[in-house]
Amino acid sequence: MEKTYIDALPLTMNSSEKQETVCIFGTGDFGRSLGLKMLQCGYFVVFGSRNPQMTNLLPNGAEVLSYSEAAKKSDIIIIAIHREHYDFLTELTEVLNGKILVDISNNLKINQYPESNAEYLAQLVPGAHVVKAFNTISAWALQSGALDASRQAILKKEIPFSTSTAWLYDSYVALGILGFFLFVLLGITSLPSVSNAVNWREFRFVQSKLGYLTLILCTAHTLVYGGKKFLNPSNLKWYLPAAYVLGLIIPCIVLVIKFVLIMPCVDNTLTRIRQGWERNSKH
Hints:
By secondary structure, the protein is of the alpha/beta class.
């Protein structure tokens, strides 16, 4: 199979210094991502694989060899394979003697094995120096770099306490609770079993006086909810009013008409008309 390589853009390169070689056992996602970053940092990377001729998608500039050949080229060997495949390391005991083995593996479950993967690796290759590293970072984070979502943080700004905003919020809640309570009361008094138990004066007071009070509270509740949004056109999507703005049209018209009707000059005239007064009456 023809090998495919991924270009590596160097992060820091110094041609005057000799490149240090790092060996990586395993050509999976994490091994390839780590190798790419190593190359960008100026290291020479050699991969160890059980099938060197069948390996592809390696970073451009990396070399792939068998496990034993790759181990001979570096004193630092990164084990990027699963624990289940550690058995072949016992055959490389002599080659790995005195070398640094970097264990980057994580188990799928907590307490899956009696000992950690690093301890198990040290038992298989007692002559090597086993260390733990890179097990808290993912292959995606290595590939994405600064674009990785785990590196993005929202800047938290201190928002000063606003007394006006607090009063608006408290008023919005209080008006909503009172309006809903009176609305339920109106609904209860509209039941035949309840309306038949009260006289006409009491029924008229509840349906008229409390009815308008309920309408005022609910309208004020919606007005406070809108707040400054009524005067800010940018809050209007497609420059169309929101649903709560449309819902205020009829209640506001009713309240304006009621306010006009309760003015003394209008109310006195209407009261006289209700009592039978006529403008052109001779009697």
